[in-house]
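Bug report

Summary: structure tokens for Trichome birefringence-like N-terminal domain-containing protein differ between web form and batch submission.
Environment: batch mode, default settings.
Steps: 1) Submit the sequence below via batch. 2) Compare with the web form result.

Sequence submitted:
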Amino acid sequence: MAPLAALSFGRSSSARFGSRTTSFNSPRVLSRRKWLPYSASPSLTSIASILFLSSLAFALYLFAFRRIPATSPEFFFGPGQDCDVFAGSWVPDDTYPLYNSSECPFAERGFNCLANGRTDTGYLRWRWKPSNCDVPRFDAREALSRLRGKRIVFVGDSMSRTQWESLICMLMTGVDDKQSVYEVNGSKISKTIGFLGVRFRGFNLSVEFFRSVFLVQQGLPPKQGPKRVQSTLKLDKLDRMNKRWMDSDVLIFNSGHWWTATKLFDMGCYFQVDGLLRLGLPITAAFKMALETWASWVEMMVNTNRTHVFLRTFEPSHWSDSNQKVCEITQQPTSEAKGDDRSEFGDIITEVVGKMRASVTVLNVTLMGKFRSDAHVGTWSHPASILDCSHWCLPGVPDAWNELLLSSLFANEWRKFGR
Ligand SMILES: *[C@@H]1O[C@H](CO)[C@@H](O)[C@H](O)[C@H]1NC(C)=O
Ligand SMILES: *[C@@H]1O[C@H](CO)[C@@H](O)[C@H](O)[C@H]1NC(C)=O
Ligand SMILES: *[C@@H]1O[C@H](CO)[C@@H](O)[C@H](O)[C@H]1NC(C)=O
Ligand SMILES: *[C@@H]1O[C@H](CO)[C@@H](O)[C@H](O)[C@H]1NC(C)=O
Ligand SMILES: *[C@@H]1O[C@H](CO)[C@@H](O)[C@H](O)[C@H]1NC(C)=O
């Protein structure tokens, strides 16, 4: 860990990357020009050879582009970039899915829709395509070699657990000895487990998950409070586990799905700030205070010279009613962005992160999820229970979150490492 911590990272220095057009001007591509046959009236053969040579050049370009991802602007995103990788659409792609959940011991059965009886498979074959650039194709071996020696920590609710599972399954496709990947305490995945840590022994890599659905502390209410108050969320105190998150290379947070009256007030959980109950505080205001607590924790406690901090935005659900009882799983993504995106949470994230001095990357997955009413767990969970239009099947949408996560990491500072 020490060698990494000693290096300084410049996060927002995008200018040193050339634009995509300049990479066409590389000597290799220029020298190709003299091969082109010139003639006053091009014959069919010369047109054919021009076509052939340009496709060859394009293939060469693609090859070079895959070889030297670090210099390719497509891999970079951040403030002020040309390409907003979160604005785009899903395109059909038969090279997906990236893995088979039945062959990945860390994909929980509840998310393995195919194993739980889903018969249509079209939902597996979609790639996220940003409008103005491409996400580099995931390459498990390359990713593993770049992640060697790193500690990646996911913190949040079940959506974070899904992303944790997805990343492990994606990476495991590049590991020959599957036994060399194991959970450190031999723990089994469950909905309520607080900590899961998977080690890739051959790569000295760990990928961990901490369950912290609100990110702030939940605890006993102050004495003399009303009877209905059975617990409180201390909006000004980060989850006690926070000490175990700090010493990492990558930290990915999310929170959102638990900030509802059903999961809070109906369960007797109310808000508390500075020791005082705040019974009338609206949920959005509470979410904002919790996020501000998180933001100052990042600024004070995390060495962002070493640790890359990500915050994932709300993952849309596709319920047709407000009671979350009815929904329809389509067979294909919708052409329009639909679904509940809790846009007020997105606005709060924009505002809070916008004020931070520390560098944090927002993984803005909200829009991309809104097209994917086809990709939820539905009734294909395990044990088969109620209809679910919140969680996602694996493989599926969370894999795309990870492709964006990795491309962000590799595009930025980590191009200096692992090669
Ligand atoms: C996934 O793997 C399982 C077990 O090896 C196999 O039975 C199944 O056909 C595979 N599914 C796909 C879609 O390849
Ligand atoms: C494994 O990685 C950690 C950093 O996460 C480092 O401190 C340690 O020296 C590495 N061990 C080996 C055997 O490379
Ligand atoms: C699991 O392992 C971690 C790290 O090795 C350790 O800190 C923690 O106490 C263990 N937890 C349990 C429940 O065994
Ligand atoms: C992070 O790097 C900057 C620039 O190199 C340096 O000024 C700062 O002290 C570093 N912060 C920490 C916590 O190491
Ligand atoms: C996420 O992307 C959407 C659509 O591009 C945008 O409206 C929203 O402001 C973004 N949110 C954040 C937090 O960056």
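Above is the batch result. After comparison, the two runs are identical; trailing whitespace caused the diff. The two ends are 17 Å apart (CA to CA). DSSP finds eleven helices and 15 strands in the chain.
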